[in-house]
Amino acid sequence: MKFNAGWLLGGLVAVLLSTAWVTAGADTDIPTKFSNRGSIANTRHNMTQRQAEGGGPAATNMDPYRNDYQEVCVYCHTPHGANSNVALPLWNRTIKATTYQTYNQLGTASLTQPVTQPGPNSLACLSCHDGQVGVDSVINMPGSGGYNANQATTQSDTFLNAWNNSRGPDATRHMGLNQTGCLACHSAGALLGGNATDFAVFVIGTDLRNDHPVGVRFPTAGPGVDFKPPTATRVGMAWFDDNSNRRPDTNEVRLYDSGEGFEVECASCHDPHGVPSNGVGSQFNPTFLRVTNAGSALCLTCHSK
Question: What pTM, to 2 d.p., does this model score?
Answer without folding.
Answer: 0.87
